[in-house]
Specification:
The structure is a single chain. By secondary structure, the protein is mostly beta strands. The chain is 0% helix and 61% strand. The protein has no helices and 8 strands.
Amino acid sequence: MASGILGNSDLSANTDTSVYAVPADTYSVVTVSFCNRGSNTSNIRLAVSTSSTPTGPDYLEYDVSLGPNGVLERTGIVADATKEIVVRSSQASVSCVVMGIETAVPAS
């Protein structure tokens, strides 16, 4: 099972990006960190979804303002098998890193 950085992306503006997908028969505990490297405020979205196109109840953060040179970090996210961490930024100067640990689902 993997641990450490599980996924990262330099985000394109106004585009949903699946940064990490939990493998089958696994669950993950992750931290998602956004870094605005630009000089303009960006609106950030973060979802845990069954697909790369989140719907309303999937969102943990929705159009949260992230100021220039700012950081937004969301910790303690538990995602079950095949869920995707999907992110979005209104500016292209934002990067996202998913860090955590994958754990095998115990046999029942």
